[in-house]
UniProtKB/TrEMBL annotation:
InterPro entries: HAD-like_sf, HAD-SF_hydro_IIA, HAD_sf. PANTHER family: 4-NITROPHENYLPHOSPHATASE-RELATED (PTHR19288), HALOACID DEHALOGENASE-LIKE HYDROLASE DOMAIN-CONTAINING PROTEIN 2 (PTHR19288:SF46). One of its GO terms (molecular function) is phosphatase activity. It comes from Pseudanabaena cinerea FACHB-1277. The keyword Hydrolase applies. This is HAD-IIA family hydrolase. Coiled coil: none annotated. Keywords: Hydrolase. GO terms for cellular component: cytoplasm.
């Protein structure tokens, strides 16, 4: 098993030129860097791999995340960082989703600034063409009511992502953007028109456009089956699932049905409208230990970025589980 795991990792590594790395749960948890992540990322660079950071974070600006990484000792360029906040603003602007009427932002000041950075105007409940929902710890009843008013007037419903929760320090989780989206969807009795972040592949398209990277030569590294790995499956590119522990992966492997499909349908920009309840249900299903025939399938599982670097560097049979 150890030899097989190393062989798969080595082959996957040799075939990729770019690494698309998730942040929360892979590079850091909350304000704490995961042990060895900084050294591993530098080793990846020295091995000639292009590094791209891709996060569903919709509450922080690209600048804020760059500053966080820098303060943690991880050297990177702002152009290497892509967030669901910046991707959502870019998507709305590029496709004129708001019809030039402005965007009502249910989210942080950072999300509002990202919207303005792409030349979009901020709207209000009575004057907007799109409602953009991101994570906001201060979201309240009034914000939901404003979104309801705008949606009832015909505004498009755009979600930065549908993440039910996200990891923080100490293994704890906090409600994610999807929880806020669900509240608004329930009030408006309306499904989202566009969900921009992972697992949809819109952000991969944006990365390809802005960095000229070849997606066929990319490797996704992330800790969430429901977002990181499913996105990779949909784009038909390899992935490494960061499992934290060997036991977690073993439990996952035992639960996989023998007839699990090897590929999943790709996202199409014109076919993004979906059933919110179904999206959230699928999100939860992929996190639970119960068997699901639509469960995402990583190429390989490792415990950390450090384990990946260690396994590749030592050149001997090692499972990556420490």
């Amino acid at each position: 098993m150890a030899n097989e795991a190393q062989t798969i990792l080595q082959k996957t590594w040799e075939q990729c030129s770019s690494l698309i790395i998730d942040l929360d749960g892979v590079v850091y948890q909350g304000k704490q860097m995961i042990a060895g992540a900084d050294v591993a990322i530098e080793q990846f660079r020295q091995a000639g791999k292009q590094i791209i950071f891709l996060t569903n974070n919709s509450a922080s600006s690209v600048l804020a995340i760059w500053q966080k990484l820098t303060n943690l000792g991880i050297v990177c360029d702002r152009q290497e960082i892509f967030t669901s906040a910046s991707a959502s603003a870019s998507f709305i602007a590029d496709h004129a989703i708001d019809g030039g009427q402005g965007v009502l932002v249910i989210g942080t000041e950072a999300l509002k600034q990202e919207v303005q950075n792409y030349g979009l105007n901020l709207g209000d409940a009575h004057h907007c063409g799109a409602v953009l929902v991101g994570l906001d710890a201060q979201c309240n009843y009034q914000a939901i009511a404003q979104a309801l008013t705008a949606l009832n007037k015909g505004a498009k419903f755009v979600a930065c992502n549908l993440d039910a929760n996200f990891p923080t320090e100490g293994g704890q989780s906090l409600p994610g953007c999807g929880a806020i989206v669900a509240a608004i969807a329930a009030a408006a009795e309306k499904n989202v028109d566009f969900a921009i972040g992972k697992p949809n592949t819109i952000m991969l398209d944006i990365i390809k456009e802005k960095t000229q990277v070849s997606l066929e030569k990319c490797l996704v590294i992330g800790d969430m089956l429901a977002s990181d790995i499913l996105m990779a499956n949909r784009a038909h590119i390899p992935s490494i699932w960061i499992t934290e522990t060997a036991d977690k992966y073993d439990q996952f492997a035992r639960s996989l049905p023998s007839d699990l499909p090897s590929d999943l349908p790709s996202d199409l920009a014109g076919n993004l409208a979906g059933d919110l309840a179904g999206n959230l249900r699928d999100n939860w299903a992929t996190r639970s230990p119960t068997t699901s025939t639509h469960r995402p399938q990583p190429t390989i599982a490792m415990t950390s970025l450090k384990a990946i670097a260690h396994t590749l560097a030592i050149g001997t049979a090692h499972s990556g589980f420490e």
